[in-house]
Design brief:
- About 65% of the residues lie in helices and about 0% in strands.
- It is an all-alpha fold.
- The chain has a domain at about 5-20 and about 30-65.
- About 0% of the residues are buried.
Length: about 80
C-alpha cells in the first residue's frame, strides 16, 4: 500500500471514529428500546472500525515481511 493511499485510509478511519463517538442527543420522546438500539449500534460500529484498523495493520506488517501474530480478540470498552 502506497503512503498516499495509507494516509487516505487513515483519514477515513479517523472520520469514522469521530462520527461514531460524537455525542448526538437522543430524539425527543425516544423509547428505552430505541436508546438501547442506538447504543448497541454505536458499539457494533466501534468494533467494525477496530477490525478495519487491525486489518490495515496486518497488511502493513505483511508488506514489511513480518509474520502475522494471529487473530486479535476485540473487546469493546464501555
Amino acid at each position: 500500500m502506497q503512503m498516499h493511499e495509507r494516509n487516505l485510509v487513515l483519514m477515513n478511519i479517523l472520520r469514522d471514529i469521530a462520527e461514531n463517538e460524537t455525542h448526538r442527543p437522543a430524539a425527543t420522546g425516544a423509547t428505552d428500546e430505541e436508546s438501547a438500539r442506538r447504543v448497541a449500534d454505536k458499539e457494533a460500529r466501534r468494533a467494525e472500525i477496530l477490525g478495519e484498523i487491525f486489518h490495515m495493520l496486518r497488511q502493513q506488517d505483511l508488506a514489511r515481511g513480518k509474520t502475522a501474530s494471529g487473530p486479535v480478540k476485540l473487546q469493546v470498552l464501555r
